[in-house]
């Protein structure tokens, strides 16, 4: 049996690999392939999953829906040619036993029953899956009914555009629901139970198996112990600039600009600032952007001191998520994972192309009271000071984040269902 996973973005690639790794563990004999629509597919390479067709990074990084102006850059960067080549690779894979052994004589009817498509993301991989002519499963990571409403009712309209959101009665538009309703669409996995219930009422067999974003986040014990952490007044603040270059460097500068307000607002607290740095980023570039008042206190680990604050730059991502009390974030997936642990995040919209005001607004709708958008860097300190002094709000945030993001283990549950589907049609 053969499975092709189609995804369209770095975060989607990560989710896809978690599911594929679980599939490989449950059935080592299955042949896995990937088609990353956006980006080079480095996550697949690290997991030893072969890529079919061309893979390249476009100027937008795959965030066209967040900033339509990026479309022109992608068009001039070869979007049309890339899409054509990817569709061609998809059709070839759908008709042949393997991408390397294609011949016109291969019987498509003979091979179509031992192969399946797993589409991860939004309508783009879903369209690709439909166009393949094969059976497919859809993991909808990009949308949630929480965009439009929560358990208490619809969100109030803010601005002209928001009045038209949900015009079809669902966050998933009619053509998306049509693709999900086709007989070849065997599984529909959505990101929360609220969305699954809403789609089920509209006649779709949507299911909630959990959110794969919350898988594999156990602390690894790789975070060095700082003396300041033993202080009962310590507040651990997670700094999340994101992972996409060069945007992450600009976001890092904005995060650093919030720190004077934080130090001023909490002079009586010991502040430990945990810079969770993605492997794709240069530590040296981040260090070079530090203001001169930050002085080196240790090179292993890399720590800096300024007044009552200690800054640590580390790649111990999971440990940072569990250690921190609150986050200052300009990230997508990382912010959602932090919130899923029951913790609050202050988000700081930037120029993009990913973490724009529009993106941050959608993220806040999906994650509810766990997110507080603060647009001015000088206002972050007071926002955090007010939040940590409100135990009732912190309790609500804890319950809300865990409810909306779910428990670990989704990758295994989705893998089990996809394998069952493939076994049934084999």
Name the descriptors:
single chain; 426 residues; alpha/beta; Rossmann fold; 2 domains; 8-stranded mixed β-sheet; 6-stranded parallel β-sheet; 16 helices; 39% helix; globular
What does this structure look like?
By secondary structure, the protein is α/β, with parallel strands linked by helices. The chain folds into two domains: 2-215 and 408-425, Glycogen Phosphorylase B (Rossmann fold); 227-405, Rossmann fold. Helix content is 39%, strand content 18%. It is built from 16 helices and 16 strands. The strands form three sheets. An eight-stranded mixed beta sheet has the order 11-12-13-10-9-14-15-16, sandwiched between helices. It has a six-stranded parallel beta sheet with strand order 2-1-3-4-7-8, sandwiched between helices. A two-stranded antiparallel ribbon has the order 5-6. Helix 6 links the parallel strand 3 (115-121) and strand 4 (136-140). The chain is globular. The termini are close together.
- From the 3D structure, determine the CATH topology of the largest domain: Rossmann fold
Approximate helicity band: 25-40%
- The CATH architecture of the largest domain can be named as 3-Layer(aba) Sandwich
Structural class: alpha/beta
Distance between the termini: 8 Å
As an assembly, this protein is: single chain
The number of domains is: 2
Which descriptor suits the 3D outline?
A: globular
CATH top level label of the largest domain: Alpha Beta
């Amino acid at each position: 049996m053969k499975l092709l996973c189609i995804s369209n973005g770095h975060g989607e690639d990560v989710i896809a690999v978690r599911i594929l790794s679980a599939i490989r563990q449950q059935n080592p004999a299955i042949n896995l392939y990937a088609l990353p629509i956006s980006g080079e597919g480095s996550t697949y390479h690290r997991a030893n999953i072969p890529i079919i067709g061309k893979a390249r990074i476009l100027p937008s990084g795959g965030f066209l829906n967040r900033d339509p102006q990026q479309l022109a850059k992608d068009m001039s960067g070869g979007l049309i040619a890339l899409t054509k080549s990817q569709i061609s690779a998809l059709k070839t894979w759908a008709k042949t036993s393997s991408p390397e052994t294609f011949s016109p004589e291969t019987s498509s009817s003979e091979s179509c029953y031992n192969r399946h498509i797993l589409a991860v993301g939004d309508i783009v991989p879903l369209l690709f899956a439909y166009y393949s002519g094969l059976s497919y499963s859809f993991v909808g990571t990009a949308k949630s009914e929480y965009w439009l409403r929560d358990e208490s009712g619809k969100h109030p309209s803010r601005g002209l555009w928001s009045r038209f959101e949900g015009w079809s009665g669902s966050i998933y538009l009619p053509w998306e629901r049509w693709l999900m309703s086709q007989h070849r669409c065997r599984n529909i996995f959505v990101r929360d139970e609220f969305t699954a219930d809403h789609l089920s009422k509209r006649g779709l067999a949507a299911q909630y198996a959990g959110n794969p974003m919350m898988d594999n986040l156990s602390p690894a014990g790789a975070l060095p112990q700082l003396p300041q952490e033993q202080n009962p007044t310590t507040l651990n603040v997670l700094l999340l600039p994101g992972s996409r270059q060069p945007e992450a460097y600009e976001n890092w500068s904005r995060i650093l600009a919030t720190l004077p307000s934080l130090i001023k607002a909490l002079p009586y607290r010991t502040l430990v600032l945990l810079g969770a740095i993605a492997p794709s980023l240069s530590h040296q570039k981040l260090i070079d952007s530090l203001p001169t008042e930050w002085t080196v206190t240790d090179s292993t680990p890399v720590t800096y001191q300024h007044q009552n604050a200690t800054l640590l730059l580390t790649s111990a991502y999971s440990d940072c998520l569990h250690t921190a009390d609150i986050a200052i974030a300009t990230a997508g997936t990382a912010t959602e994972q932090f919130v899923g642990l029951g913790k609050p995040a202050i988000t700081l919209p930037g120029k993009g192309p990913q973490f724009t005001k529009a993106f941050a607004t959608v993220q806040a709708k999906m994650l509810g009271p766990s997110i507080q958008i603060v647009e001015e860097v000088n206002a972050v300190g007071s926002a955090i000071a007010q939040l940590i002094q409100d135990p009732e709000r912190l309790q609500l945030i804890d319950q809300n984040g865990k409810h909306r993001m779910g428990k670990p283990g989704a990758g295994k549950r989705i893998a089990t269902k996809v394998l069952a589907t493939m076994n049934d049609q084999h």
